[in-house]
Amino acid sequence: MRAARLVAFGDTPRFELHDVPDPLPGPGEVVVDVYAAALNRRDPWVWRTADYCPLPVTLGSDGAGRLSSVGSDVDGPAVGDAVVINPTLGWGDAEDLPGEAFDILGAPLDGTFAERVLVPAANVAAKPAGWSYDEAAALNLGGLTAWRAAVTCAGAAPGRSLLVTGAGGGVGSFVVQIAAALGASVYVTSSSQDKIDRSVALGAAGGFRYDDPDWTEQLRAATGGGVDAVVDSYAGDSWDRLLTALRPGGRLVTFGDTGGDEATIDVMQVYWHWRSIQGTTMGSPREYRALLDHVASARWRPVIDRVYPLEEIAAAAVRLDAPDRYGKVVLRVRPDADRGDDHER
Ligand SMILES: NC(=O)c1ccc[n+]([C@@H]2O[C@H](COP(=O)([O-])OP(=O)(O)OC[C@H]3O[C@@H](n4cnc5c(N)ncnc54)[C@H](OP(=O)(O)O)[C@@H]3O)[C@@H](O)[C@H]2O)c1
């Protein structure tokens, strides 16, 4: 099978298309013929982290396709099934946090930027009906992270208000759509009015330019004193202001640090206003099933920025950093496969 292998770490990663042996499923495992895969911030984080793992390696956490073989002891999934892949490995039984076996598909374990990927049978589920493989591939890591952040941590529901930072990001666009679909009032921040307008089209109630010095005052005015929860993945120097965007008793939910992994805050903004800060990463198997149950009846679809053939992975990697990107960058791995591009609902 063909695999896009990372052969050199760096800011400009080097990929090569290699012919590698087909994976064989062991007990409890399945092999998925990958039709489409999608990039996540985790991929550049790996390729920029020198010596993260031995090279060459196949990156990719997100994928969708059809099962091509199943191992012994696999009960349920069958060859030919159209599936999505849950990239969370070894979460365990607890809901509040994963166990020690926790890992994410795609480096050091070979991931989805290849024609076939080996995963535990428990990590595949039926592709959402009517979704294209591109949409189904785009859903998984970002959708799961967004579900846990928006629903489990931020309590998205009617009567609740949320602020989503970096709404044009791969995860942010999922948070906006999930929270809006569940009836929450969603506000966004972005660097561009165009991305704010697109977020409003996805269901947000409004948005603010984070380069506007008065944006928190505008938000507090619009929400009558601040939002119930902020869902943030930027961190860096933004937290002091984000805390003041919360109503007293509100919660800052954090799942990333695009803007830097050190933040200085006025601690009084936390304890004197009964606020909390909660971290989250990925999600449990139960949350992944809840996400799929939700999308079975929801009217939204993943926002796809661009689709590239597997052999153009270097261009896809560059696109991930483009300032005008909005939503997910997808790799079409098997262009000749049955695409299932059925957009009926
Ligand atoms: N913990 C987890 O499970 C998990 C899962 C997925 C991702 N992550 C992390 O979460 C972060 C976001 O991931 P992603 O895939 O959504 O990344 P992404 O698609 O690259 O989005 C990043 C967004 O950050 C926004 N941004 C830039 N400057 C900002 C500022 N000053 N204030 C607020 N937002 C700003 C940009 O928004 P505009 O373009 O609108 O300006 C951009 O869309 C990354 O750090 C990633 O590593 C964590």
Automatic annotation (TrEMBL):
Membrane-spanning parts: none
GO MF: alcohol dehydrogenase (NAD+) activity
UniProt superkingdom: Bacteria
Residue ranges annotated for the Enoyl reductase (ER) domain, each copy included: 10-331
SMART domains the UniProt entry points to: PKS_ER
UniProt KW keywords: Oxidoreductase
EC identifiers of the protein: 1.1.1.1
Entry-linked PANTHER family: DEHYDROGENASE, PUTATIVE (AFU_ORTHOLOGUE AFUA_2G13270)-RELATED (PTHR45033:SF3), PTHR45033
Protein's name according to its UniProt entry: Alcohol dehydrogenase
Organism: uncultured Thermoleophilia bacterium
Lineage: Bacteria, Bacillati, Actinomycetota, Thermoleophilia, environmental samples
